[in-house]
Amino acid sequence: MRKLFLTLFYSGLSPKAPGTVGSFLALILGLGLIPFIPLSSLFLLALLITVIAVKQIDIYEKEVGAHDGKEIVIDELAGMWIALSICGITQENMIIMGALAFIYFRIFDIWKPSLIGRIDEKVKGGWGVMGDDLLAGVAAGIAASGTYQLLVMFIL
User: Fold this and answer.
1) pLDDT in tens, 143-156
2) CB proximity list for 104: less than 8 A, separation 6 or greater
3) Where along the chain do its domains lie?
4) Which end of the chain is more exposed for a tag (fewer CB within 10 A), N or C?
C-alpha cells in the first residue's frame, strides 16, 4: 500500500521520465477535482498528502536505503496541486492554465533554481523529498498566473 501511495498508483515506475508521468497524472487528478471542490480545499489536500507522505517516505527510505528514489512521485502530486490551487484556474481557463501550471512546475522541478535546489540538496528525509516540490509548485503557480495575465492582455 505504501508503494502504491508513494509511486502515485505506480506511475513513478515508468521507465522513462517518472517525474513527468507522475506530474501529468497529478494534473489530471487535480483538474478532475476542481469542478467539485474549492481551490482552497485542493491546497489543503496537498498539505495533508504532504504530511502523510513525509512519514511514509521516511519509512520507505529506511527500507530501501536510498534517498529520494525516482519512483517516489507523490511529491509531484503535492507540488502540482499547490500550483493549480494558487494560479487562478477556473472552469473557463482550465486547459490553458492547467498546461501553464504543468509546464512551469516541470521546469522548476527539473531546473531547481535558488531555494528549490538548496532544499533538494540539504534537507534529508521526507521533508527533503517533498519540500523542493512544494516550493516548485508555489513558483509554478505564480509563473502560470503571470503568464496567463500577459496572454490575456496581449493575445487572448
Assistant:
1) 999 999 999 999 87
2) 83, 139, 140, 141, 143, 144, 147
3) 2-154
4) N
